[in-house]
Design a protein that fits this description.
heterodimer; A: mainly alpha; Arp2/3 complex 21 kDa subunit ARPC3; two-stranded antiparallel sheet; globular; B: mainly alpha; 12 helices
Chain lengths: 367, 290
């Protein structure tokens, strides 16, 4: 995801640099409010957390693994301003120390991976929370949708920047279809893990999930000196802290699954709409010059998704629409697979998660 | 032993919080630790200590030089192929002056591999007139685009690698502060780099704990456990942040970290640092002119 030097031209780099600088300046003010006076150490530690989470690899299957981008996670956990600051610092150090992402593209990288993901996640989360009934499950649904949308939105923003100042000569529709398709998949993974992580934090320290402040209520109360779980007869979904986070993921996943499907369809529709609204002359020119062998090259050289975008360039609306539909279908298939797998695991009696949580929670004393 | 240090620090923080602030103002303990060089697992081997002319330059001069160099490289027209050769030679000269082995630099440059892959695909993907080479139909503009990204990206990566290899983490942060990056941002970066090692160690301990209970992450089914690890890690990070803040308050923290030895650079040092970007600028102007 890190954009290197020379990928986008100078005006775009300067402009995104200005956007990033403004966003960081605003965030510096806002973070003081979010963290009260504890900005420096807390934001630093949260940045270290984001850094570490990016090192935590999640196996995708077939020997490959991905890692979290963390924008939505940070936005939900510590608030948007602190999240922008943390991600900016992470990206700055990555560019300076690890040469990951170009120095001149630092503004672009901060804008795409810091600002866009965090702003989208924040807006989506709070929009959903306002619409949906209050409760712990709402937090899960909102987190999932926010994390899911934040990744393809970042990809769309990249495509936009590329349209204005890309140095490589690839047709816009193709970049758009490929980027969005791939990032819909990445977004699903990001969403699943972000939701589970937020659920885990909610189960242990609900007060630390900033975006959920006021949405959940403490489930444990002290009566006569003894701690008792909240009575099971309470109809509210926020019955127990561990209910959604650990013990009953099966029930929490159904709305997530439905939301995921709905959101995917919306995105796919958006892809087609964008494609039909895009009168790209360049593609016409390309159509007239050797499409046939181009299509062949693609079948050999690239993913089937990109091939979908190429195969029928003679009708460009159809072309990109098909790519979008293919992306959506693939997303749905993989997404359903993910959820079926997770649900099957959740319904089977397995001590694994509890055991792991126990491990994790028991450890602070040792450290 | 950063983890042990951190434990001691936190213990001190808790003690301080209980006993009230100490009467005298001293720096919080983490600040006294030599941060450079071992700030986190990934950054541990980044800095190659040395006393070469490149190492001894003040950090902010080097930062300005690297940024200037990369800007010039990006501004060079891609058709001036020879200019990029000169840039590469310039960086090789810096590497030699810094007495770094070429292997060190080259190995760290592997980080740009994903974009190399992308660049290699470009000739197939791009539009425009096509040329045939070895039976493959390649786009001409795609070839130029690939060259553009490869050359500029690689030079940028090499410049950053050289900077990180010759400048300690702490110095880079001081240099950034000297260059008027907002102090709060520098503080956040300082804390992040200082505690990244501690956090990475916590992650490692959790991995050991998982592994010793027979857990291996094989696929999507195990995401839940890993996500709970991330959740627990967040709680630990946040709580540690609060403890560190208390420890700092008890030592008289008022929003800014005192600088013990401010970075200074005399004219000769600036001139030496400017040699790289200025030579590159001449090459760039020639590249446009020719």
């Amino acid at each position: 995801m890190h954009v290197p030097d020379g990928f986008l031209d100078a005006p775009v780099s300067v402009a995104t640099g200005a956007v990033a600088a403004a966003a960081v300046a605003v965030s510096l003010r806002g973070a003081r409010r979010e963290l009260e006076e504890r900005t420096a150490p807390l934001a630093g530690l949260v940045a270290a957390f984001v850094f570490a989470v990016q090192m935590l690899n999640f196996p995708v299957g077939a020997g490959t693994s991905g890692h979290l981008l963390g924008g939505a996670l940070a936005a939900v956990l510590v608030g948007p301003f602190t999240a922008v600051l943390c991600l900016s610092v992470v990206l700055l150090t990555q560019a300076l120390l690890f040469a990951d992402g170009g120095l001149t593209a630092l503004g672009t990288n901060i804008t795409l991976m810091g600002v866009v993901t965090v702003v989208v996640a924040h807006l989506v989360f709070h929009g959903l929370v306002r619409v949906l009934p209050r409760g712990r499950r709402t937090v899960g649904v909102a987190t999932f949708t926010a994390a899911f949308l934040s990744v393809p939105c970042s990809a769309i923003a990249f495509t936009g920047l590329y349209a204005i100042g890309g140095t490589a000569d690839v047709s816009l529709g193709r970049v758009f279809a490929a980027m969005t398709g791939v990032h819909l998949l990445i977004g699903l993974g990001e969403a699943a893990i972000t939701t589970a992580t937020v659920g885990a934090v909610l189960a242990v320290r609900p007060d630390l999930v900033r975006a959920a402040a006021g949405l959940t209520r403490p489930a444990l109360e002290i009566r006569g000196g003894a701690t008792v779980p909240a009575p099971a007869s309470v109809p509210a979904p926020a019955a127990g802290p561990a209910a959604v986070g650990a013990a009953r993921p099966a029930r929490a996943l159904r709305p997530l699954w439905l939301t995921g499907v709905a959101v995917t369809l919306v995105c796919a529709a958006f892809v087609s709409f964008y494609a039909s609204a895009d009168p790209d002359g360049l593609e016409r020119v390309a159509t007239e010059e050797g499409i046939a062998e181009e299509a062949e090259e693609h079948g050999l050289a690239d993913s089937p998704l990109a091939a979908y975008g190429v195969k029928d360039v003679d009708n460009e609306r159809l072309s990109v629409g098909l790519a979008g539909a293919a992306g959506a279908a693939l997303t749905l298939a993989v997404g359903s697979g993910v959820f079926v797998a997770v649900r099957r695991r959740a319904t089977a009696p397995c001590p694994g998660p509890e055991r792991a949580t126990g491990t994790v929670r028991a450890e602070p004393e040792k450290v | 032993m950063p983890a042990a240090d951190a434990a001691v620090t936190d213990a001190a923080a808790v003690t301080d919080a209980v006993n009230g602030p100490r009467p005298r103002v001293v720096l919080p303990a983490p600040r006294r630790r030599p941060a450079a060089g071992h700030a986190h697992a990934g950054a541990r081997g980044l800095y190659r200590p040395g006393d070469s002319p490149v190492h001894t330059l003040p950090a902010h001069c080097k930062l300005v030089a690297v940024l200037g160099f990369v800007l010039v490289v990006v501004a060079t027209p891609r058709e001036a192929v020879w200019a990029f050769g000169v840039y590469a030679a310039l960086l090789a000269a810096v590497t030699a002056t810094a007495r770094l082995g070429p292997g060190v630099v080259l190995r760290r440059m592997l980080i740009e591999l994903p974009f190399v892959t992308f660049a290699l695909l470009l000739p197939f993907l791009a539009e425009g007139p096509r040329v045939t080479w070895l039976g493959l139909s390649l786009s001409e503009s795609g070839l130029w685009g690939a060259w553009n990204i490869l050359a500029k990206g690689t030079l940028g990566v090499a410049a950053s690698v050289l900077l990180a290899a010759t400048t300690g983490l702490r110095e880079i942060l001081l240099g950034l502060e000297r260059l008027r990056l907002p102090s709060l941002l520098v503080q956040i970066a300082t804390f992040m780099l200082r505690y990244a090692d501690v956090i990475a160690d916590e992650l490692r301990r959790m991995r050991v704990a998982r592994a010793s209970r027979g857990f291996t992450a094989r696929g999507v089914r195990h995401w839940g456990v890993l996500a709970r690890t991330a959740g627990a890690l967040f709680i630990r990070c946040y709580e540690r942040g609060e403890r560190v803040h208390l420890a700092m308050l008890s030592r008289g923290y008022d929003g800014s970290l005192p600088t013990v030895d401010p970075l200074t650079a005399d004219r000769a040092q600036w001139a030496r640092a400017a040699a790289l970007p200025l030579t590159a600028l001449v090459v760039c102007v020639l590249g446009w002119a020719l």
